[in-house]
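Appendix B, example 12.
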Amino acid sequence: MKMTLKEVNRHYTELSGLGSLVLPSKLSYALACNLEKLQREAERIENERRKLCEQYADKDKDGEPVMVDSVINGMKTQEYRMSDENRKAFTEEYEALLDTETEICIRMVKREEVERCEQAERYSIPSVRQLMALSFMLEE
């Protein structure tokens, strides 16, 4: 299946939240396989993002990227310090990377496997949001 790297990140993030569901075995297996493939690609994307950050970050006297303390969503973290000009260039290049298409062999599963969740109490019933996350890997 062709998708952009932005879609890879989105699908990986959304599917990662479904690991606690008890699903029919075919659906669970397809979910696990797809998560594994998407995770590998998401890790590659993150490695490229980190390289870009290091490339555009301000450098110290030894030529190393400068890190600064920051708070994101209430969590303390560190981020690369960049000039406004470099941050703009980084953002443009990273967005171009995320627009890149890739081919990922997604394991498809029949929609009936999701419907089986409502037929047995042992299965979790996916929410609307969870069904939306699964939708790209469902076939009629």
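The two ends are 16 Å apart (CA to CA). Residues 57 and 82 are 5 Å apart (CA to CA).
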